[in-house]
């Protein structure tokens, strides 16, 4: 084992490559995993537990925020893989205050990004959370991260949890931890499993996306969002005996609907005045070369723009 400083001095290169001191806060509620990543921490965060999944997340978030306030340094915390053992539902995560990031894509083969017949996908969870936080809970945007969750490094490619499957691209003036955290908290990043973007432009009128094309690859961009007037009520998920399953509730298809689909290397969406938020998903025709789940294509997740119909916070 080596200290962070020993490793960062060997691998770090000013202006080119940066390691940031971070920690996975590996917690749980009963048998449900609740894992969170703290970025740019200055001292260890001891998992604090709680009386519910939500309570576990809020307690650990509060500890990170307290350390941030004491140190005066920018740091952030995010929820890892909500569908790992289906430990965290949209209803759990949407209420957490001070935690504005979660993994919409995680490269570990066992984290169930796509969900199943009874559990929502992570993309679906994101849309439910965005709608509820912005329109009902009066909380900030929840940003979506892509990560690789790398554990296995020596037999690539394989079905192990390997690096290079998911990452974020951040628009930052400087390559230092605080500048990167500040940029991400402002939403100046996109998440990717292979698709590269030239630019993402947000204005009061909408979103403009320019893709960095790869020869022979075609791209489809879906603009996804929720319009005002959506049905708010969710219904519990039931098993074959009619008993409630612990899972994200079923909500109307008007939450997180496709508002526009564009083919090509550029795409734009103009607000019509009814949007609570709009985000975008770019899908390439190119299969992922080493996917977390078989059949994945390369993608990019563009962070949501708050729409004109979102209540003022």
Can you walk through the features of this model?
By secondary structure, this protein is α+β, with helices and mostly antiparallel strands. It has one domain (4-306). Helix content is 18%, strand content 31%. The chain contains five helices and 14 strands. The protein has a six-stranded antiparallel sheet with strand order 6-7-14-13-10-11, covered by helices on one side. Strands 1-2-3 form a three-stranded antiparallel sheet. Strand 8 and strand 9 (206-211) form a beta hairpin.
- The spatial strand order of the largest sheet comes to 6-7-14-13-10-11
Number of domains: 1
Number of helices: 5
Q: Give the beta-strand count.
A: 14
Overall mean pLDDT: 95
Contiguous runs where pLDDT drops below 50 for at least 5 residues: none
* Strand content bin: 25-35%
Let me know the largest β-sheet: 6 strands, antiparallel
Q: Helix/strand/pairing class, anyone?
A: alpha+beta
Could you give the distance between the termini? 46 Å
The coarse overall form would be globular
In percent, how helical is the residue content? Answer: 10-25%
What is the H/E order? HEEHEHEHEEHEEEEEEEE
Radius of gyration: 19 Å
């Amino acid at each position: 084992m080596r200290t962070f400083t020993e490793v960062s001095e060997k691998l770090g290169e000013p202006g080119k490559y940066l390691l940031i001191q971070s920690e996975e806060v590996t917690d749980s509620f009963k048998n449900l995993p609740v894992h969170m990543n703290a970025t740019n921490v200055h001292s260890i965060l001891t998992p604090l537990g709680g009386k519910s999944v939500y309570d576990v997340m809020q307690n650990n978030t509060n500890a990170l925020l307290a350390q941030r306030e004491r140190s005066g340094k920018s740091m952030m915390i995010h929820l890892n893989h909500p569908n790992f053992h289906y430990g965290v539902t949209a209803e759990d995560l949407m209420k957490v205050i001070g935690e504005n990031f979660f993994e919409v894509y995680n490269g570990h083969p066992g984290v169930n990004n796509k969900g199943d017949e009874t559990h929502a996908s992570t993309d679906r969870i994101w849309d439910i959370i965005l709608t509820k936080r912005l329109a009902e809970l009066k909380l900030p945007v929840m940003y979506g991260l892509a990560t690789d969750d790398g554990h296995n490094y020596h037999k690539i490619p394989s079905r192990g949890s390997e690096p290079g499957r998911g990452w974020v691209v951040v628009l930052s003036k400087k390559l230092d931890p605080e500048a990167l955290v500040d940029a991400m908290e402002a939403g100046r990043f996109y998440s990717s499993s292979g698709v590269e973007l030239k630019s993402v432009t947000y204005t009061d009128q909408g979103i403009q996306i320019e893709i960095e094309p790869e020869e022979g690859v075609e791209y489809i961009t879906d603009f996804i969002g929720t319009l005002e007037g959506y049905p708010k009520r969710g219904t519990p998920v039931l098993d074959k005996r009619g008993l409630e399953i612990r899972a994200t509730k079923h909500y109307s298809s008007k939450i997180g609907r496709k508002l526009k689909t564009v083919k090509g290397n550029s795409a734009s969406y103009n607000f019509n005045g009814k949007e609570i938020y709009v985000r975008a998903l770019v899908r390439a025709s190119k299969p992922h070369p080493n996917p977390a789940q078989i059949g994945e294509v390369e993608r990019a997740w563009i962070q949501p723009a708050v729409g004109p119909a979102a209540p003022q916070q």
